[in-house]
Amino acid sequence: AGRYRQAVSRASTTAAKALFPRALRGVSDPMSGFFAIRRDAVARGAEDGGLRPLGYKILLELAVRCRPRGVAEVPFAFGERHAGESKSTLREGMRFLRHLAQLRAGGDARLRLLAFALIGASGFLPNLAALWLLTGPAGMHYVPAEILANQAGLLWNFVLVDTLLHHRHRAERPRGARLTGFALLGNADLIARIPLTMLLVSTFGLSPLPATALSLVAVFFLRFLLVDKLVYRR
């Protein structure tokens, strides 16, 4: 094969596999036009947001959106072109980049972000209510109280996210694994939130309740990205 075709293929494959390491695991050449896929996998992808191919990279579209449960490959040689014309034009290259961006963002990413925001906002209530009880009537210091209160908001958010937002992806992982991953990520942001809360309390004179509320807002977008990509593997 010509060096140009090989270079374009390798660069495209590297970019795609870097963006979708899980979806393209076991697929050595997602740019290939020679493949077969089970109908039930295509039907599953069509139900879950639909298929929106852009350009000629149909295998890439199917692998990312349909997530086939198993991949098997039959090797073949990348030979010289003897007929037809190459589709490796600048226009197709730009279309390929748009396709990658479209796949990475997800067709319903904005809706998921809005839903996640509403669920996260509702989770502020049990979190802040627990914090008020622990720092007020219970007389606990606000740092350990924030750690405990975070569990109330975290459990509330998990039930809603798992039931309403990602119900179509629950079968991919057991409930215990989903809850564990959600809890680990939900508590990991305490590493950023507690120092921020302490800064707001000690430097800016805020009470623990509004300081905690501000820290929850500050880490919201990071939590959305981590939950979306790692727990439910979107």
TrEMBL record:
UniProt-recorded Gene Ontology molecular function terms: glycosyltransferase activity
Superkingdom of origin organism: Bacteria
Gene Ontology CC, one term: plasma membrane
Keyword Membrane on entry: yes
Keyword set, alphabetical order: Glycosyltransferase, Membrane, Transferase, Transmembrane, Transmembrane helix
Spans traversing the lipid bilayer: 113-135, 208-226
GtrA/DPMS transmembrane domain: residues covered: 116-231
Protein name, per record: Putative dolichol-phosphate mannosyltransferase
Gene Ontology biological process: polysaccharide biosynthetic process
Cross-referenced Gene3D superfamilies: Spore Coat Polysaccharide Biosynthesis Protein SpsA, Chain A
UniProt topology in membrane: Multi-pass membrane protein
Short name of any one Pfam family annotated for the protein: GtrA_DPMS_TM
Location(s) in or outside the cell: Membrane
UniProt record similarity statement: Belongs to the GtrA family.
Signal peptide: none
